[in-house]
């Protein structure tokens, strides 16, 4: 009797399975980065650094998905013929995502998971606390306009990253134009770097690049005449960024070139007052300075430029724009 009752007990005990081992979330695994904020330029730049870190077979090992579940399952896969895999997920983290992360973490050391969010994740939630143990949370917010000291430091930091030398007065002048817009700051600093041939950027240089149509058009034409194509393109680009109408820019440029034509043809043949009358110049004293401007410019180039402007006007009146202007500048700068 006792033997019969003992046998089933023994069978029952032998049938017991050991408890399933839980995934050790604290174990060494791949890194998880959460990028959040409204500065898209800096976020995209950071994403590019992750993309560039993929050593081989990018079409297989750099993955962009729109769902956290897909991102986690992709991150669990071994990289194809490479040392690493990068997975980018563009989705806001929710509190109930905790179940997903507890189920799948840790991801392999060969994987990096990057989650891009519009807003700052709530660090009080269980899911964010968990993710902080697996990686980093990095914010990229546009600095409010009233935090001028922060914007100055931001511009200086960007300049140092680009290896651009800029004075403190120039930073203030640039801040007045760009605010804290990182994309615009980078764009303007790169143009100023070219404009100064890598030299120190001063306040006067920034002021030259401001969208002053009359001043910048004159500088642009002078650069074209001197064969400084890059400088001319930078100046015209600044005017287009200020939303100046192409036909307005054309009219200002054509007016300057026509004045140069009159002065070039008549200088040395008659007095300054007569030249001023012919060219429609209000102050005859300006003729001296204009004659200095055109002294080293060939008459043939001025005529060629006017013909080119006539062709440009034809294109602009039929829907042309910035590209046509840049083609004109490139052709005239040769």
UniProtKB/TrEMBL annotation:
Its EC number is 2.7.7.7. One of its GO terms (molecular function) is DNA binding. Residues 1-24 are annotated as: Disordered. It holds the Pfam family DNA_pol3_delta. Residues 216-327 form the DNA polymerase III delta subunit-like C-terminal domain. The keyword Signal does not apply. Belongs to the DNA polymerase HolA subunit family. This is DNA polymerase III subunit delta. It comes from Aphanizomenon flos-aquae WA102.
